[in-house]
Amino acid sequence: MAELDADLDHIIPSSVLPSFWAKLVVGFVSLVCFARSYDGDFVFDDSEAIVNNKDLRPDTPLGDLWHHDFWGSRLSSNTSHKSYRPLTVLTFRINYYLSGGFHPVGFHVVNILLHGGISVLMVDVFSVLFGGLQYTSKGRRVHLAPRASLLAALLFAVHPVHTECVAGVVGRADLLCALFFLLSFLGYCKAFQESNKEGTHSSTFWVLLSILLGAVAMLCKEQGITVLGLNAVFDILVIGKFSVLEVIQKVLRKDKSLESIGVLRNGGLIFRMTLLTSGGASMLYVRWKIMGTGPPPFTEVDNPASFADSMLVRAINYNYYYSLNAWLLLCPWWLCFDWSMGCIPLIKSVGDWRVIALAALWLCIIGLICQALCSADSRKRRILTLGLGFLVIPFLPASNLFFRVGFVVAERVLYLPSAGYCMLLTFGFGALSKHTKKKKPIAAVVLGILFINALRCMIRSGEWRSEDQLFRSALSVCPLNAKVHYNIGKNLADQGNQTAAIRYYREAVRLNPKYVHAMNNLGNILKERNELQEAEELLSLAVQIQPDFAAAWMNLGIVQNSLKRFEAAEQSYRTAIKHRRKYPDCYYNLGRLYADLNRHVDALNAWRNATVLKPEHSLAWNNMIILLDNTGNLAQAEAVGREALELIPNDHSLMFSLANVLGKSQKYKESEALFLKAIKANPNVASYHGNLAVLYHRWGHLNLAKKHYEISLQLDPAATGTKENYSLLRRKLEQMQKKGV
Fold first, then answer.
1. 146 near 22, Cβ under 8 Å?
2. Which site among 61, 345, 423, 581 is 20 to 30 Å from 193 CA-CA?
3. What distances in angstroms separate CA 76 from CA 235, 288, 290, 442, 698, one per listed residue?
4. 3-class DSSP state for residue 135?
5. What average pLDDT does this structure show over 106-122?
C-alpha cells in the first residue's frame, strides 16, 4: 500500500499527512462547499416531510413515529409510501423543538455539519480500504495510506452529487444512514484489532455492535442494511484473503487442494458470516412486518421502465439508468431535483443510439471486474474489489433488481456509492502517476477536479436555497419533465402570477396529458378567473383519468356550483368525501352549496362536520355563526361563536361575527370589547369600524359612532350602508345641536 501512497506523493503535500490535519482539511473543505445552503428555505419534498408532517409537532405522541412512514402517514394505509425512517423523523422533531418551530436555518445547519462529519469519517474508512488491517505486535495498524485516504476523502467531500442530500433537508435520511453505515463498517473492522489482543468474546461484541449500528442505519433509511453485505465482502477478501483467481486456477487444473481453501476452513469467518446473515434476515423480517400491507403503490410516471410489458425493454432501460447514475458520478454538472415525468424517455428498441451508454458502462465494469478478480497483484485485486463493492452494494436497493422503486434517477441514492467511485478514481490517479514521468499534469488535473467540483457544489447549493431557483435550474437539464413545469407553475401561482402559472401548467399537461395534478391546479386558476367552462372540462378529465382524486372532485363541485348546476355539484362533493372521508374543506364547500339552496339544516350539519374534522376551520365556524344570525337564532349563534373562540382565541373574524350577534342581543359592553379586539388585530378592515359604529349608534355613544363611521369610510369610501348610517347620524347630531342638547 506504500506503493500507491508514493505514487500520490506529488499531489498530496506531506505537511497535511498527519491524521488530525488531514481530517481538519477535509472537514473545512466539506463545510465550505455547502455553506451557501445554511439559510435556504424548505424546498420541494421538505414541505411534505417536514412542514406538513404532524409527527414533528409536540402534540403528536412520540410512539406514533414508530407506526408512521417518513411523511407522517400510517404504515398500514394503502396510500403509505412505506419509507420507514423513524430515527430521521425524530431528528427533525428535535430540530423543531430546539428551533421553536419551522425555522429552516437550524435544519440546514445540522445537514451541513453531518456531511462534514461523514467526510471526516471517510478519512478513516478509506485508510482501512486502501491500507488493509495489518497490525504490529503492539496492536498499532500499519499501512495507513495517508495520501490515498486524504485524496479520496477530499473527492468525496466536494462531490456535487451530494448537494441534494446536504442542501435539501429531506436528504438528512441519506446523511444519517451514511453516518451509521460507516460507523458499522469501522466497528466491524475493530473486531479484528480486538481479536488480536483480547480473544473471541471481544471480537464477537464488535461484530454484534456493527450489526446493531447497521440496524440503526436502516432506521434512518432503508439503504443502511447493505452495510452487512459490505462487511461480509470485506471480511472474506481482506481478512480471509480469499482469491477468486486462485480458485479459478485450481478449478481449471482440477486441483484436489480446492477443498482446503482457507475461507472454507476458517471457523471464525463462518461464525461471523452466520451472525451477519442472521442479523440481516432479522432486520428484513421486522421491516416487512412493519410495512403491513405490502409494497408502496408507485405509478407509471414515477418509474415508467418498471411498467414496460417487455422484459427486454425493462432490462435495457434499467441498465441505461445505471449508466446515467455513473455519468452523474463522473461528470456531475447536469443535476436536477427530479428525473421523472418524461425527463428520460424510454428506450424501446436496441436501435436507440442511447444503447451505446449501456455498452460503455458494461465495458468499464467488466474491465474493472476482470482486474479485480484476475490481477496477479493482490493489493490491486483487493482495492478494486472493495471499490466496486462500495460502489455497487449500497446502490442495490435503488437498482429495481429486487423491487420496484419510485423514481427513475435520484441523486440522493448516490451519496454512499460515491465513496466507491472516489476510491476507484484515487486508485486510477495513482496507477496513472506510476506509469508516466510527467507528474505535474496529473497533479493539475486532480486539483482542477477538486476545484471545479467545489465550485459546482457552491453554485448548486445556491440553487437549492429557494424553490424558484431550484425549479428553474431544472429546465435546462430536463425540459421534457412535466413535473418541472408543474412546480414552476405552482410557485408562480403562490406568488400571485396567475398568467405565467397558466402557461407552465398548460405545458405540463401538454408534456403529460395524464398529469391530473397539473389539470387540477390549472382548473383552479381558471375557476378563479371565471373561465368556468374550460375549468370544468379539465377537472372532469382529471377525475376521469383518476377516479379517486378527491381534490379534483371537490374543485369540480365548486365550478359546477358557480355554474348553478347544483345537483351535479352535490354529487361531486359527495364523491370527493367518499374517496377522502376526513375532508373538512369539502364539507365546508358542501355547506356553502346547501346555504345557497336555503337548506339551512344541511348546511349547518356540513359545517359542523368540517369543524369536527378540523377544529381550527375558521371559515366553517364563521359561516355557522352568520347563518344562525341571519335566521334569527341569536342564542344558538352566540353559543357557536363562544365555542369557536375557545378553540381559535386569536381569530379576529370570529371576534367580529360574535360581536355582531352580541350587539343584536343588546350585550353592548361585551360586543364593544370584541369589536375593539378585532380592530386591534386587524385595524384596516372597514366593516370592523363600520359595525362598531352601528353598535355605538344603537347604544347612544354618538361621538364614538361618528369617529368609527369616518374611519370606515376612509378605508372604504364606496360602502353604501356605512354612508347611509353616517348621514342618519349626522342629521341626528344636527337636530340635537339645534335643540341645544
1. yes
2. 423
3. 38, 12, 8, 55, 59
4. strand
5. 96
pLDDT band, residue 18 (cuts 50/70/90): confident
Q: What is the DSSP letter of 346?
A: P
Handedness of CA 253, 256, 261, 264 (dihedral sign): positive
C-alpha separations of 578 from 266, 519, 573, 584, 593 in Å: 63, 21, 9, 13, 17
Q: Nearest-CA neighbor of 271 among 306, 240, 312?
A: 240
Q: What are the percentages of helix, strand and coil residues in the chain, rounded to 5?
A: 75, 0, 25
262, pLDDT greater than 60: no
Amino acid (1-letter code) at residue 67 = H
Instruction: For residues 123 and 125, give the distance between their C-alpha atoms in angstroms, rounded to a whole number.
Output: 6
Alpha helices (runs of H) in 266-354, residue ranges in sequence order: 267-291, 311-330
Q: Residue 134: which H helix or E strand, with range? A: strand 134-135
By percentage, how much of the chain surpasses pLDDT 70? Answer: 91
- Cα–Cα distance for residue pair 218/221, rounded to 1 Å: 5
Residue 279 phi, psi dihedral angles, 5° rounding: -60, -45
Is the pLDDT at 435 greater than 90? The verdict is no
| pLDDT classification of 266: cutoffs 50, 70, 90 | low
79 versus 488: the higher-pLDDT residue is 488
Strand partners of residue 68: 74
Question: 417 near 394, Cβ under 8 Å?
Answer: yes
Packing angle, helices 355-374 and 311-330, rounded to 10: 70
Q: Which of 172-176, 234-238, 372-376, 430-434 has the lowest mean pLDDT?
A: 372-376
Q: Which of 134-148, 265-279, 515-529 has the lowest mean pLDDT?
A: 134-148
Cell numbers standing for residue 1: 500500500
Residue count (the chain): 741
**183 contacts: CB under 8 Å, gap ≥ 6:** 121, 213
Q: What gap in Å lies between CA 201 and CA 192, rounded to an integer?
A: 12
DSSP state of 339: -
